[in-house]
Specification:
11 strands, 33% helix, 318 residues, elongated, alpha/beta, 6-stranded parallel β-sheet, 5-stranded mixed β-sheet, 60s Ribosomal Protein L30, Chain: A
């Protein structure tokens, strides 16, 4: 697949390369040397500020939350992520995935002082990334935002967009709101070779920490777009040769019964967990298909249904 253009947004105060980073200050430019005069500041995030390690040590027993904690807390919200241009990647599997495939996006990796997974430590080191240890107090402070396992990464927002000229299978997501389900859709996409995902309006933010965790961090391996008007996007997809396929328990055929022309390029429409696909959107589909089931079961979980259909599409492609 032809590599698409990377879409990147970030806060200028964080926009330093790893070469510019000091050992004790992973978020900004190098801290001044001892013989140089250092300006005072309350934040460890940019140049001319107190370094992260020193700030954390001096403030670990203070009642007032340190400034760096507030920044991490912001990343739990969509507005905060947009403002800072960063997102959280939590847990061992997620951090391992990010370190292996997207190390250029990593601003910092943080662990509990007692974190003892030597294999992961080695993998992170081989990727040329540094690990910063937090005290138990600091980990406790971020626990409301960051889940367990004692490790998380702060990363820059970035993603590739689908290449509709070369793609053969696209997933259209209509207002899926459960982060775990969207994370599973991304895992399905990676596992079954889906070339891109289009996230319609009303769909949960793909950089939501629960989506990132639900995808095991692999969501960035599938090109995607977000906040898209699906009805408008249908026109572009048809111009690129896609057959838009919606699902319905009342459909007469399965996806494997599509004609060779229709199955050459498929855009699969997946709907909301509770209400399904918006009728105004699904009515514009070119074909409707069903998943054959026994015992008159009406529907499946959206991620399960997507996994089955994605597998069938992969089989049809050979």
């Amino acid at each position: 697949m032809q590599k698409a253009t990377i879409k990147t947004t970030y806060n200028k105060s964080f926009g330093h390369s790893r070469d510019e980073l000091d050992d004790d200050n992973p978020w900004g430019k190098k801290v001044v040397k001892k013989e140089e005069k250092s300006e005072k500041g309350d934040s460890p995030w940019g140049s001319k500020k107190k370094d992260f390690a020193a700030t954390a040590k001096h403030e670990k027993h203070e009642e007032k939350d340190p400034p760096w904690l507030k920044t991490i807390a912001l990343l739990a919200t969509e507005k905060g992520r947009e403002k800072e241009g960063l997102f959280l990647a939590e847990g061992m599997r997620v951090v391992a995935e990010i370190a292996e495939y997207h190390k250029d996006l990593v601003h910092g990796i943080y662990v509990d002082e007692t974190f003892d997974n030597e294999d992961l430590r080695k993998k992170i080191k081989e990727a040329g990334l540094r690990i910063h240890a937090l005290t138990p107090y600091q980990m406790k402070q971020v626990s409301a935002v960051v889940s367990g396992q004692g490790i998380f990464a702060v990363c820059r927002l970035a993603n590739e967009k689908p290449n509709y000229d070369t793609a053969h299978a696209i997933t259209l997501v209509d207002a899926v709101q459960d982060p775990g389900n969207l994370g599973s859709l991304f895992r399905n996409a990676v596992g079954f070779g889906i070339d891109g995902i289009i996230l319609g309006r009303g769909t949960v933010d793909p950089f939501n920490p629960k989506v990132v965790r639900g995808s095991s961090g692999c969501f960035l391996r599938t090109p995607f777009e977000t906040g898209i008007d699906l009805q408008e996007r249908f026109s572009l997809l048809r111009q690129k040769g896609f057959c838009i396929v919606a699902t319905s328990p009342h459909a007469k055929k399965s996806i494997t019964e599509l004609s060779p022309r229709q199955s050459k390029k498929i855009a699969l429409l997946i709907g909301n967990e509770g209400s399904g696909t918006n009728r105004q959107v699904s009515e514009l589909a070119d074909e409707w298909v069903k998943i054959p089931m026994e015992n008159s079961l009406e529907s499946l979980n959206v991620a399960v249904a997507h996994g089955i259909l994605s597998y069938q599409i992969a089989q049809m492609r050979g």
